[in-house]
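job 3f2a | input accepted
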Amino acid sequence: MTYSQLRAFHNVARYSGFSKAAEQMHQSQPVLSGHIKELEKIYDTLLFKREKRSVQLTLAGEELFVLTKQFFETENETESETETEIETHSVICVHISNVHV
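job 3f2a | predicted structure (101 res):
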């Protein structure tokens, strides 16, 4: 399982379809479809029930979606905290360098 596969799965589930997920991710539908098929192959289970122009999560898909939501929320929180720490550190460094000038 790769980060790209998890991201593809998460967005297809989040946007309830390949088209919207592909648009949001700036990727082609075949790329996303390939990631999902690979996940399903690795774990020998369907993650989505595919119908004409929509998808629905299977039970396995619902369980994975809960986990990917937690994962990507944590990732976003970590990025935000890191950015805040970098900005705070940068401000302190600039202030200190101004004092010495």
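job 3f2a | Residues 6 and 68 are 7 Å apart (CA to CA).
job 3f2a | closed
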